[in-house]
Amino acid sequence: MSSAAFPENFVWGVSTSAYQIEGANAADGRGPSIWDTFSDSQAACDHYHRYAEDIGLLKDLGVTAYRFSVSWPRVVPRGSGRINTAGLDFYERLVDELIGAGITPYATLYHWDLPQALEDKGGWATRDTAAHFADYARVVHDRLGDRVDTWFTVNEPWVAAFLGYGSGIHAPGRTSAADAFRSAHHLLLAHGLATQALRPSKVGLVLNFGPVMTPGQVGDLSMELPEEDAEAVARIDTLLHRQFLEPVLRGAYPAELLPVIERSAGLDHIQDGDLAAISQPIDLLGVNYYAPTVVQAQPSQPADPAYPGSAGILFCTVPTAVTAMGWPIVPDALPLLLRRLSREYPDTRLMLTENGADFVDVISGDGIHDVDRINFIEEHLRALRVSIEEGARVGGYLLWSLLDCLEWADGYQRKFGVYHVDFATQRRRPKDSAHWYRDVIKRNGLGESRPKRPTLETVAARASVSRATASRVMNGEASVSSEARASVLRAVQELGYVPNAAARSLVTRRTESIALVLSAPRPGGEALTAAVVQYVTSVLEGAGKRITLMLADTAESHRRIVQHVEARLVDGVILAMPDRTGPLTERLTRTGLPLVLLGKPPVASLVPYVDVDNIGGAAAATNHLLAAGRRNLGIICGPLDLVSVQDRLTGHRNALERAGTHPLIATADPTLESGAAAARRLLADNPRLDAVFATSDHLAIGALRAARQAGRRVPEDLAIAGFDDIDAASCTTPSLTTVQAPVAEQAMALARLLLSRLEGRHTTSVIVPTRLVVREST
Ligand code: FCB
Predict the structure, then answer these.
(1) Which of 103, 187, 141 is nearest to 398 (CA)?
(2) Does ligand 1 have an atom closer than 6 angstroms to the CB of 113?
(3) pLDDT tens, 519-529?
(4) Strand partners, 229
(5) 155 CB under 6 A from ligand 1?
(6) What pLDDT score does 503 carry?
(7) CA-CA distance, 211 to 292, in Å (whole number)?
(8) Which regions in the chain score pLDDT beneath 50?
(9) Ligand 1 contacts CB of residue 408 (under 6 A)
(10) N or C end of the chain: smaller count of CB under 10 Å?
(11) CB 323 within 8 A of CB 360
(12) What is the pLDDT of residue 764?
């Protein structure tokens, strides 16, 4: 095999899925699917009516294989029961046309479009769905089994279970760890039962692989890890990969996973005989690879809902090249993955069933020069070839995807196709990557020379001007003649030149501006507000963004802010109004722009936020008072409509419960006087009171004053602790024990959270740990 050739009989193809391309969602008796309910797909690529034209494109590419998916609700509109023969007829026409074109069909039976009627009965969290799936598999196989030789049961069960039922960012949008684990098991069971139904055809399962590594390893794959990072990597690997690989290929769940499942979902849903059904021998494993999963240990991090059991692990953004999805480009992780699969499951044949990239395409006069996409595919094919040399049993490569199509929750803005689709006219047009892939297939390997991204020199040469002139035009300088400007812009257009972040922003319609929305700080909140302005500005400006500061203090200012954001004058918003988010959050969420909050919102929402560990901090202060021998503790809290105050009360209550006592509660307004009055009430009602915890330092300072007036010695008779560590807490007499809520960390986390949102990365809220500062008052 020459340095760039692939083995003889290597399968070259492309993958698509029904919901992403077919459209015609109400045509010829198709029933609704969970994705119809979750998002409005419109016509997608109208492939249902244009399949013959699309098979023409496959022929032009010269592929030998085409992986498509069958829409369950097109064949069985309600998921079980009545069969829609018109649906089966469509897939028969498709398969016959493929075979007529000399292309081998590979059919996937489940690519996420569950019939809505089955979701209404509990969806994948319900066991019956697996049996219905096997029945549906049998129906399709009865019609097409004589012509389709290789079947894939389920595509990416992790995504279906954990994004559909765990984080809820995919249909059906449920957010329950229990349902997610149950769904994962039932998807595996569905695979096993369907495998039996599909015999004697060849059967495979398709899994999504995101080799798990730390940010350091992205640059150096062989890097050794400290123990806590190694643990984080192993834990995510188990949830993402081994949860599926081990039951299917070895007949058992990983031992360390069972307690995690049990904690969220119990184990009753895993019944006798299930694992035997799930571990039917398969003929091949489909490997979908796009990007690694990058994590590191971070003790304060709450669990990500897509990975129940992942508390203490941070999903990281890495400063490496990314696609427009924000997915890091790491071709070297592919040989790593294939080596591992070959080592651990040596008998399993593999096929790369999906790999490809979303980049912003520029349509120019003479075509779509998607050099980034070509480079991406080429680098991954080189990496694949290395793996095959090493002995990985990979029989084929199916590119994602033939057409620009509907990218699930992201809609139509994502461009994975080697054919551009104009969704207004449904016209298909080959990108350079289509021509390039055709050549790869024709020569069964890669060419020796790589296409290069057009440079400013190329633009200057095409426009017959100097490089300096081209550069001046690109920078918008006025000192250039209008003829020179016109010819440079023409060259830019023709070459599809995308020079740098600024010009790219024109293409992506990014403004590179961020709105930082503030309220006037509440008493004690000044340091936090100042830190937010200081750190958010420096982190975001460091990342090349401009900051627009906006004060939200009146109804009029709220209206102006919403208008500004709706007009897309910014790429994202940081709402730094702890305790006061409410309706403004809701209106900003509806604009669809990336939004992050300072402070946990009062109602659970999907908007990520940064907050301090209020519960843990209050528990620490309370435990400290208990450890000092105090037995009669009172809490001054207020105002109780603030989420942070509620959480601090919860932390206090939890700690007391563990010690076997109950809280004595006095509520207050957030002022010193109100804190003093509350302390007086507590002292009057409970003469044996020997400690007070206040939910803020202002209230605690008021309590100090009341204690002194009542003739109580602090800390001898009465210990007092506060929260927030404002400057005054260290200057009182005696100085005040308090809980420190680190302001700089919150501000930095806020800025980083917004940056990862802007990159389209999966993000979760951040809870910053607090620290107990013990002083003389306790
Ligand atoms: C995979 C899906 C596929 C497509 C690509 C980009 O996870 O299987 O449908 O969305 O991602």
Answers:
(1) 103
(2) no
(3) 877 777 888 88
(4) none
(5) yes
(6) 38
(7) 5
(8) 500-508
(9) yes
(10) N
(11) no
(12) 81
DSSP assignment string, 375-392? HHHHHHHHHHHHHHHHT-
**pTM for the whole structure:** 0.65
Q: Which residues are catalytic?
A: 156, 354
Mutate to test the pocket of ligand 1, among 16, 288, 414 (most ligand atoms within 8 A of CB): 288
Taking alpha carbons only, the member of 771, 735, 733, 778 closest to residue 630 is 778
**Cα–Cα nearest to 709, from 745, 661, 677:** 677
State the amino acid at position 419 in one-letter form: Y
Q: What is the DSSP string of 590-659?
A: HTTS-EEEES--SS--SS-EEEE-HHHHHHHHHHHHHHTT--SEEEEE--TTSHHHHHHHHHHHHHHHHT
What SS3 state is found at 726?
Answer: coil
Neighbours of 119 (CB within 10 A): 23
Tokens of 14: 């492309």
Q: Are 609 and 601 in contact (CB under 8 A)?
A: yes
What the block records as the tokens of 748 is 């930095």
Burial of 560 (0-12, 13-18, 19+ CB in 10 A): middle
For 667, the token pair is 């509520």
pLDDT at 601: 83
| Ligand 1 pocket member 623 (CB < 6 A) | no
Cα 539 to Cα 84: distance, rounded to the nearest angstrom: 57
Report the atom number in ligand 1 closest to the C-alpha of 358: 6
Three-class HEC string of 755-766: HHHHCCCCCCCE
Q: What angle do CA 527, 529, 534 make, to 5 degrees?
A: 95
Answer yes or no: are the C-beta atoms of 749 and 769 closer than 8 Å: no
Q: Is residue 409 within 6 Å of ligand 1 at its C-beta?
A: no
Ligand 1 and 156: CB distance under 6 A? yes
Residue 498: its pLDDT value, please?
62
Sign of CA pseudo-dihedral 610, 612, 614, 620: positive
Beta bridge partners of 445: 5
246 CB near ligand 1 (under 6 Å) = no
Q: How many whole angstroms from 367 Cα to the centroid of ligand 1?
A: 26
Mutational pocket test of ligand 1: of 408, 413, 416, the residue with most ligand atoms within 8 Å of the beta carbon: 408
Q: How far apart are CA 16 and CA 111, in angstroms?
A: 9
* Structure token digits, residue 725: 């560590």
Atom 4 of ligand 1, residue of closest alpha carbon? 407
Q: How far apart are CA 480 and CA 472, in angstroms?
A: 7
Cα-to-centroid distance, 547 and ligand 1 (Å): 34
Radius of gyration of the chain (CA): 30
Which amino acid is it at 169? Answer: I
**DSSP H or E run through 195:** helix 177-198
Q: How far does residue 768's CA lie from ligand 1's centre (Å)?
A: 34
| pLDDT (0 to 100) of residue 221 | 87
Query: From CA 195, how far away is CA 729, in angstroms rounded?
Result: 67
What is the CA(775)–ligand 1 centre distance, in A? Answer: 56
Ligand 1 and 354: CB distance under 6 A:
yes
**What distance lies between CA 612 and its chain's CA centroid?**
23
Q: CA torsion, points 614, 620, 623, 628, in degrees to nearest 10?
A: -130
Six token digits for residue 50 = 């244009």
Ligand 1 centroid from CA 274, angstroms: 28
User: Cis omega (within 30 of 0) on the bond before 670?
Assistant: no
Q: Which atom of ligand 1 is least distant from the CA of 414? A: 6
